Amino acid sequence: MCRIRVKTAGIGLVAGALVAIAGHTQEVRFIAATAAHGYAARTYQAIWDEYGNRIIAALEARTCLRFQEIDLLAIVADATSNSGGPEYPMRLRASYAPEVKQSTLVHELGHRHLWQLAERLDDVDGHKTLFLVLDLVWEDVWGKQFAESRVRDESEWRSSYDYAAAWSWARSLGPDARARLWGELLALNGFGDSCNDSF
After folding, report:
1. What is the reported pLDDT for 195?
2. pLDDT(5) > 70
3. Is 74 helix (H, G, I), strand (E, B) or coil?
4. Total-model pTM
C-alpha cells in the first residue's frame, strides 16, 4: 500500500491508499492572459477550489506517487492547452465548456505529475502512460459517466497526435493488465513495483 500525505482536516480511503479528502497543500494559480480571459480564469479557479483536493488525492492514489509540485501557474488563454514544463506554467484554453475545463485541468496536471517517471515503457508514450490512469482519476472525482464522456470527447480530438488510438489502447486493457504495466513502470523508475490496489 502506498501512503500519501496531503494537508488535511479529514482522512478517507480511496483505492486502498491513505489519501486526504478535505484539503490539499498544492496550489494552482490561474492567470488570465488578457482581461478578456478573466471569466475563464475564474471558472478554472472555482473548479480547483471545489475539487483540487480530490484531484490530487485521486492522482496520487491511482499512481502511487506523491504529487511533487506545491505551487504552480496556469495561463488561461485562447491557445491549445499543454502541461508546460518544469520552469514553465501550464496553459489552459479559455473557450472550453465547463466539463472540458475540468477534464483538461486534470489531463495537464496528470502530465506534470508523471514527469517524475523519467523512464518509460517501450512503445508506451507519454499519453498512453497517462491514459493508464486518467479515466480512473476522472471517475474518482466526477463519476463514471463523466469519465466515459471525456474519453469519447478526447478520442475525437484532431491533431498530429492520435488520441483515439491511445485511448483505444488504454481502454482495451483490463485492470490486471493496467496494474502490471504500472508496476513495471514504477519499478523501472525505482519506485517499487506494487500499485495493484489502484486498479
Report:
1. 73
2. no
3. strand
4. 0.87
